[in-house]
What we know:
By secondary structure, this protein is mainly β. It contains 4 helices and 34 strands. It has helices at about 55-60, 65-75, 140, 415-420, and strands at about 50-55, 80, 90, 100-105, 105-110, 130-135, 150-155, 160-170, 175-185, 190-200, 205, 215-220, 225-240, 240-255, 265-280, 285-300, 305-325, 325-340, 345-360, 365-375, 380, 385-395, 400-410, 430-445, 450-470, 475-500, 500-515, 540-550, 550-560, 565, 570-575, 575-585, 595-600, 620-630.
Amino acid sequence: MACIGHSSMAFGNLPVLSKVDSLPMLGDTLDLKGVEVYNLPVEKYASGQSLIRVTERDLERFQGQAFTEFLQKQTGLFLRQHGPGMLASLTMRGTSAGHNAVFWNGLPINSPSLGQTDFSILPVGGFDQAEILLGAGGALFGTDAIGGSVHLHTKLKYNQGFQAQVQSNIGSFGLWNQSVQVGHSVEKFSSRTQVYRNFSRNDFPFRNLSKIGTPVERHEHGQVLQYGLVQDLAWRPTDKSQLSTSLWYNSSDREIIPLIGSNTEDQQQDWNLRWVMDYFYFGSKNTWNFKGGIVSDELVFNVSSVNKTRQYFLSGDLEWDMWPGVQAKTGVRQTFIFGELSAYNASENRSELYHSSNFSLKENLQFSLNLRQLIYDGNFAPFTPSLGGEWTFFASEEQQIGIKSMLARSFKVPTLNDRFWVPGGNPDLLSEDSYSAELGIVQQWKRGNFSLDQSLTYFQMWVENWIIWLPRGSFWSPENIRNVNNTGIEYNLNSQLKWRGYNLGLSGNYAFNSAINQTNIDGNDRSSGKQLPYTPVHKAQGQIDVSKGSTSVFVNHQWVGQRFIATDNIASLDPYRLWDMGLRYQFPEGFFLKGQAGVQINNVLDTEYQILRLRTMPGRNYQLNITITL
């Protein structure tokens, strides 16, 4: 089923609810047959933190689409979408778009000028799997991870021989996506190359609310063209070392869909280059990791506004067994940032020192302690600790029940735009600062052919020195003025049943997010005590999967609650619900092709809805896809 693998289960698989993995001590030799290229699991030092694990199978039916679609339809997370293929920003636990750290193969890829990632230009073809850690992650991952962090990975394997795959996806409104992937691996070397092209005319019909009689019209300005290349290489020169590198180039050319009632014809081009190299050395009781990387972004808006940023990363860390039951990792990271933007030129240097420890006091009890200090251009960001724990208080052959908890501090350094924009930039801004606490209960139950995983988490978060831009005379300027209190509940369910040759699956999640502003800007401001704009208090999602033999079907439902469009909470957008359904057929053994084909209907009931005010979204639409494996 297209579930989220043990969705927010912070614990491992039966019979012990624990994430503590022993280090890959290779000794003299290592069996490399079919082994995956090694990478440290991102959740290893995140005890007590909720985890959404996204597998290759989960992403299958979203090939050719942006990661936006998966997150919006399959998780309790909410994305502020400006339209299909348009700007999409993520909100986690009621925080802002800039309060989520995003990584690709361990490389931070948030824009240093904007402080966030546009998820619409992260096609699923650029990675194989993902992990999403909910809640404060500043101590583990650095700046921006106030609401959580998103980790995208490409995965290579050794000893797989030659492999090739061709995918094509066609659909409504001119959708046509293709990708080709070729790879080859032997005992100590692995290589894979993928190219993709995604296109959509986006000429879907909409009701023009700005005209008398609200006639139905079609968009004439919304075309999206995206193409890219992903190259992965890995090499084991010895049985105790590994060198890997990945490159991702992505180009997007978009006609920005105008607001209802507007006739603008804005255009935006994005060019993104990401490169990372990792070297691991595996000692008898320790592992060294050295990483280098480059992130280069260029955004051109309406031809004349050209904005370029470049980030260079160098890091190194040592992971070792301190003594039985205790593992530790200590490291440093240096970041060099350069910005050439339409309004200013700027540079910034960041230095980070971090330490993480895992304590396995008993088989069913584990703690993680994380510490981090970041310095940017001589300014000290808040010292950032976190402490998390997991305790399995009941365990039997069929069932485990445990609790998890975390206390954490997190932060976000001001963006280049915040500090250097001309006019109005404020170089004296403080880092945004947050404190959070969460408590959850997790159950894993298996009896015969039925399994059930579920979790319930309660969290509180206090964000101080929240940066907002305010009118100051003839221009706007940012200030540390807002304080926000976030409270929420997250429930996740994943169940499976094997019955008379059928595989039945039910997955779902619910998110309650109360994000309340605590500060009035001036005497005329009425935003204190109100929900933040475009932050739904309620969101729910569920999916049913049924498969037998080579055929599988799914029905997906999502419901998004009311969203206020301004800080005074007077006007709002109505809740909406969407239904999707699809069928997939795996070509049987002996068929002249190896692969699968599928059909999908999105927005089955042709619901008219807006995620953001006056931003149109498509009605019922169809997709056909085929994957051929060689």
